[in-house]
Design brief:
Helix content: 40-55%
Largest sheet: 6 strands, antiparallel
Oligomer: single chain
Structural class: alpha+beta
Bound molecules: adenosine-5'-triphosphate, magnesium ion
Order of helices and strands: HHEEHEHEHEEHHEHHEEHEEHEE
Strand order of the largest sheet: 3-2-1-6-5-4
Distance between the termini: 68 Å
Number of strands: 13
């Protein structure tokens, strides 16, 4: 059997170590998702299998046509300065030459090589004796250079070291390209999502403003003509529009800002009554019967009253939207779920949530209400409840819909 020329001087122990390291590096590729950690681990494997004092991953930045140190590992020298300060043009230094010519360069004694870039040693206070620089290429594109410095015990890097590093270089190059592709894709998805969100939100605001402007015009007309009943009839419409806009803005802020609840003792009964009071106009208009049942054992809850109020408002508004025009009923209950938790439910006798939608109703911007809804309500309510360490779920119900908030009596705020 013919032996590969680069294996000729390798001992069985060296070959075993190299094979093991290769398996290990391939394993890392699938196990690690963070690019920096992955590149660090690949460099470290390279350093240990080839017995080098230092290892670096030097990446190529196409925008500036420069190479920079993304990873620099070594027990001596100032690796942080290398990462911060050193920029190489392709062709500059040995790593630069490997990048420009896309070939592996092994320099057993850097003092004899005019390409050696001394400034990096000066800046990092390191003494380089020999270098093995492997270009990282993926799909014909230069990604960077994998570099080992100073074979331990004074020798030079072997052909086996060179071949193993070339394989590591290929793995590292493909990891970098994959990470960049994922990043680009995420950015595109994010921009599309932001665009869609803004379009939806603007549409919703425009709808509310149209209602608001028409009411203002009608009220002005009523005032001009001394038509009190026109003013009186239009006033509630205007109030509803201002409510809608203020609810919308509050939900948007609650959802968009990461916030820690401002915890204080509060009475669930008070919050439920306040939310229903705010909705009274709508309840009266739709002839909705509202039942509130707070058990005696529900004491003060440690929670953020304003945030809980918004939550309940969303659940109650949804219930009011869902109930039929005649015979609408909403039942709100609060009771102790166990020693540590309070449970608040909001149930209605509307059509309920179709099974195929159950998984989606808590998603932001999911709404079946067209221009009348933004799909912020439940997403916002769930976020608030979870920020309290609780859970908001839709229960199985034979008729209508029933939402349950479970909240800890005492939230650990640390
Ligand atoms: N009580 C309910 N009965 C039936 N369907 C409901 C109920 N509550 C929510 N849903 C469904 O879940 C969807 C999402 O509700 P959510 O409160 O998040 O948004 P929205 O009410 O449509 O709009 P917004 O609350 O932002 O004005 C609703 O569009 C509706 O289809
Ligand atoms: Mg809603």
């Amino acid at each position: 059997m013919q032996t590969l020329p680069w294996l000729e001087h390798a001992s069985p122990a060296d070959i075993n170590r190299a094979v093991e390291a290769l398996y290990h590096v391939h394993g890392l590729m699938t196990a690690l998702t963070d690019l920096d950690t992955l590149l660090e681990r690949i460099s470290d494997e390279g350093r240990s299998v080839a017995r080098a004092e230092a290892a670096s991953v030097i990446l190529y930045d196409e925008a500036t046509d420069e190479l920079y140190f993304r990873v620099a590992l070594g027990d001596s020298g100032d690796q942080e300065t290398l990462k911060r300060e050193v920029r190489l043009k392709p062709g500059q230094g040995i790593a630069g030459a490997a990048a420009r010519d896309r070939v592996t360069i092994h320099v057993p004694d850097v003092e004899q090589d005019p390409r050696f870039y001394r400034d990096a040693d000066t800046m990092s206070q390191f003494h380089t004796r020999n270098i093995l620089a492997v270009p990282m290429i993926e799909r014909n594109q230069l990604v960077g250079v994998l570099e080992l410095v100073n074979k331990m015990d004074g020798g030079a890097f072997s052909s086996l070291d060179q071949h193993v590093m070339e394989m590591f270089g290929a793995v590292a190059a493909s990891a970098v390209v994959n990470a960049r592709l994922i990043e680009e894709q995420m950015e595109t998805t994010r921009l599309v999502a932001i665009g869609q969100a803004i379009a939806g939100l603007t549409h919703h605001i425009k709808n509310i403003l149209t209602g608001l402007n028409s009411s203002v015009e009608l009220i002005e007309m009523g005032l001009e003509k001394g038509n009190d009943s026109l003013v009186a009839n239009t006033w509630p419409v205007l109030r509803r529009s201002t409510h809608r806009i203020s609810n919308f803005v509050q939900d948007l802020l609650l959802y968009a800002k990461p916030r820690k609840p401002i915890i204080e003792p509060c009475q669930p009964q008070r919050i439920i009554v306040d939310a229903c009071e705010t909705m009274r106009d709508l309840f009266n208009q739709k002839h909705v019967a509202v039942e509130i049942d707070v058990a005696d054992d529900v004491d003060a809850l440690h929670a953020d009253p304003d945030a809980l109020y918004r939550c309940l408002m969303n659940l109650v508004t949804n219930a009011a939207d869902a109930v039929p025009d005649k015979g609408g009923r909403i039942a709100i209950t609060a009771r102790r779920a166990d020693e540590q938790h309070v449970e608040i439910t909001v149930a209605d006798n509307g059509p309920g949530v179709p099974p195929e939608m159950r998984d989606h109703i808590f998603e932001i911007f999911f709404s079946t209400k067209g221009a009348r809804g933004t799909g912020l309500g439940l997403a916002c309510a769930r976020k608030v409840v979870e920020e309290h360490g609780g859970a908001l779920t839709l229960l199985d119900a034979d008729r209508g819909a029933c939402f349950r908030m479970t909240l800890p009596l005492h939230k650990n705020t640390s």
